[in-house]
Amino acid sequence: MHRAKPGLYKLGNPTPDSPVFVTANYRLSFDELRTALPGIDGFILVLDTRGINVWCAAGKGTFGTEELASRITSSCLGDAVKHRRLILPQLGAPGVSAHEVRKRTGFLVEYGPVRAGDLPEYLKTRKATPDMRRVRFDLADRLILIPVDLVQVLLPTLGIAVAFLLIGGPLASIGAASAILAGVVLFPVLLPWLPTPNFSTKGFILGALVALPFVRAILMGAPASVWIHHGKILALWSRTGWAAVYLLAMSPVTAFVSLNFTGSTPFTSRTGVRSEIFTYVPLMAWILGAAAVLGVILSILG
Amino acid sequence: MTNAYATNTLRFDPKLCNNCGMCIEVCPHGVFAKNGRTVEMVRAEACMECGACQLNCPAGAIGVESGVGCAAAMIHAALTGRKEATCGGDTESSCCSGETSDKTEVPCC
């Protein structure tokens, strides 16, 4: 069960002077808070965010002013503590208006650090360093996102690979799968090091790079076993055309998958992503379409 | 080729600012910093439009069109004609694979 029951919880042996921490009723949010505070006596006020984590819930508004205010009242927090201060995770701020909460409940919202792990340090001074207030997206943060995305694309990718195996042979099948998987697995890893500032263009570049071995294999006619059509190796002009098809088909696919990684990052603005979509998705479609047309022509001619 | 993230909808009016510094406390990307008697934007291009600053500015000095910078959500909304969804997944990062008890919520994916 991913949800904790909303309400007021004790941490250790709190007194009416002990600090009050606020979190979401998503199991991992609650557990991470508890385990970050060993040996601390306090209260944990768990909001009903329908089992969703703090930041996402804040964006939705469920980790919000309304829920916080009503939960303070329904849990009789005012009777449990003498002071009137709450420590909220910083990432709850998109949903909570601190001055509104103060007005409605008399409780002062203090935004603690982004990461629960910084809480012990924060509690010493009740002041966060700039670093504690900054969201990071390091390699480790990016790597842990890959398994979830991989699991989601596995079945569709398999289906696409099978389809391409039937219409184009093993190389086409591997090419299609590679283009998708490059976007899902390689892109998150290489994100900061790929040139250009936009996800789509980074993805185009990554896709082109991943296509290169295929282009090379086709142009060299090797390994011949995957490149024999109707018992003979294709002529150079035909292979050049097919190399172009692979490059033109794989690059936009990786670019599109890469663009979709924007939703997993903590730094892309809605305005920026919108701009990317309008600028590059049509381009992706056109290039993919050109690849398809070229492929059909080559199939007819060859 | 232009940087799609170079501009955003974040607007700050220093004339309304009361120097409380809440924006500095809540911003996850260090967009704001103190500058004498008011706050100033030092990294406006780093803004991800989460809306925390706008919501926590008691003086109304900040405006931003907040929303989720998620291509999948926007493309899905455009294709299905529904309003743009917000994140609601069970993990810190996944789009929307999480359960919702409110069946009227628009699913993200």
Please provide a written account of the structure.
The complex is a heterodimer of chains A (302) and B (109). By secondary structure, chain A is mainly alpha-helical. Chain A has helices at residues 27-35, 54-60, 65-74, 77-80, 98-105, 119-125, 139-143, 146-168, 170-190, 199-219, 236-259, 270-301, and strands at residues 7-11, 20-24, 42-47, 85-88, 108-111, 228-229, 232-233. Chain A has twelve helices and seven strands. Chain A has a three-stranded mixed sheet, sandwiched between helices. In chain A, strands 4-5 form a two-stranded parallel ribbon. In chain A, strands 6-7 form a two-stranded antiparallel sheet. In chain A, strand 6 (228-229) and strand 7 form a beta hairpin. In chain A, helix 10 (199-219) runs antiparallel to helix 11. Chain A is elongated. The model of chain A has no long low-confidence stretch (mean pLDDT 94). Chain B has 109 residues and is of the alpha+beta class. Chain B has two domains: 11-63, Alpha-Beta Plaits, CATH 3.30.70; 68-109, no CATH class. Chain B has three helices and four strands. Chain B has a two-stranded antiparallel sheet. Chain B has a two-stranded antiparallel sheet with strand order 2-3. In chain B, strand 2 (32-35) and strand 3 form a beta hairpin. The chains are: A mainly alpha (302), B alpha+beta (109). The interface between A and B is large, with 59 and 53 residues.
List keywords for this structure.
heterodimer; A: 302 residues; mainly alpha; Rossmann fold; 2 domains; two-stranded parallel ribbon; 9% strand; elongated; B: 109 residues; alpha+beta; Alpha-Beta Plaits; two-stranded antiparallel ribbon; 18% helix
